[in-house]
Amino acid sequence: MKTELVLLDGSAQRFVLDEGCELTVGTTARCSVRLSSVDVSRSHALITCQRGALTLLDLGSTNGTFVNGRRVKEAQLAPGDVVRFSSVIAQIMPVGSGSSGAVEAVRDLDSDRQTMPLRDPELVSGELPIVLQDSILWLLRRWGIAGGSTLVSLVEWLVSQRGMRGAAIAEEVEGETMLRAAHGELVGILDDPRLRAVVRSAAQHREALESVQLRLGQREVIAVHGAALPCLLILPGAAMPASSEIELYAALLRVAQRLDAPVDAGRSPSRSAAAH
């Protein structure tokens, strides 16, 4: 089957992967697939086709190359695979076919705080985007391990599988901010009084699901909260997650909280719980 690399960055550019091809991806003029995103390396990756086998090789990029949500140094590709060069998403498709991928752009923040209403996670429906399928299986396998905390697995998944710099689950208990789980680069973030104020207000929040975006110095933090949910804190990586992706994270948070409920019954969350 003859295939091509289709960019899902809005340009819909297509690059045929012929036998013997060597497709270089990066930002320099000599690259076969020239990208303009600032988080893509000059020589980011290489795709070759030898004897019908497609091989992807990361060329030591700064922000990584991913196949179906997993960061790779080298990988075999097949039709339908979603490849991400840092924040730029593409898909391997049969020549001439339409692409099943979609990318939703998120505007830069113009202020320190921006609140965005989300759909209730109970109502999120539709086919799971292919870029999430393999990473979701990783999370479900972790949830299937007896004795493990599903909340801890969720924040680990956000960092290791979804490319976030950090993630935490926090809530207000008797006037004090308590961590249920934390993972990644969160030094200095959790002590910021503005973030603590968001967690505190989330404890009193009984309305529809909301996503609050904060700019803390040079870093942006997303705080997701809703009725009967702890506050999910996300420190994005190279790309800001789309609203539909945040809705999925909220749905997973609700499921994780229910799965952990028998373990947590009658026990107050500890500040040191699951901290990494």
Q: Could you give the order of strands across the largest sheet?
A: 2-1-11-10-7-8
Structural class: alpha+beta
Q: Please state roughly what percent of the residues sit in beta strands, choosing from under 5%, 5-15%, 15-25%, 25-35%, 35-45% or over 45%.
A: 25-35%
> Rg from C-alpha positions?
20 Å
Helix content: 10-25%
Output the helix-strand order: EEEEEEEEEEEEHHEEHEEEH
Describe the fold and architecture:
- With 276 residues, this protein is an alpha+beta fold.
- The chain has four helices and 17 strands.
- The strands form three sheets. A six-stranded antiparallel beta sheet has the order 2-1-11-10-7-8. Strands 12-15-16-17-13-14 form a six-stranded antiparallel beta sheet.
- β15 and β16 (219-225) form a beta hairpin.
- α1 runs antiparallel to α2.
- The model is unreliable at 99-113, 121-127 and 263-276 (pLDDT under 50).
